[in-house]
Amino acid sequence: GLKIAFDEGLKTPVVGSAAGGALMATLPDHEVIELARRTIKGQLAGSTGLNSNDVLDAVRSFRKKGYSVGLKTDLPNSRTVAMVLPFYRSDVPLILGVGGPKGGVRGHETEIAALIRRLAREHLRVAGP
User: CA quadruple 49, 23, 11, 100: dihedral positive or negative?
Assistant: First the structure.
């Protein structure tokens, strides 16, 4: 089975990650392009084969679907679905993601996104704003 443990404070790139894709979906296109260019130039140069147009196309797709998935920086054999919770009232976006073995997630992204949305709404309704 897939066993992954993350250390506290782990940082993941905005460009390429599911959480980053969800966050970028809230930004205007010109900011997505600029962020992608800077990130690809600085951290990802040559490591993913991504370019700013690939990133913008993916972000536009995430906006339509209402959730994102990792692009080319997912951990091997894993896949993550993430979304910004628009009904969470805060100045800082709250992003919630669910990840697991690629075979268990791929093809079920829409169902997982619906589950994240439903559970988050229930939790936030109980916990309050």
Answer: negative
pTM assigned to the model: 0.80
Phi, psi for residue 70 in degrees, rounded to 5: -65, 145
Alpha carbons 35 and 25: distance in angstroms, whole number: 12
Scored b (16 or more CB within 10 A) or e, 85-104 reads beebeeeeeebbbbbbebee
Listed in sequence order, the DSSP H helices in 12-108 are 18-24, 29-42, 52-65, 102-105
- Compute the distance between CA of residue 103 and CA of residue 124 in angstroms, rounded to an integer: 30
d(CA 88, CA 33): 26
Q: How far apart are CA 31 and CA 128, in angstroms?
A: 32
The reported pLDDT for the residue numbered 121 is 82
Return d(Cα 1, Cα 52) in angstroms, integer.
34
**Phi, psi angle pair for 12, to nearest 5°:** -130, 150
SS3 of residue 96 by DSSP: strand
Per-residue confidence (pLDDT) for residue 2, from 0 to 100: 54
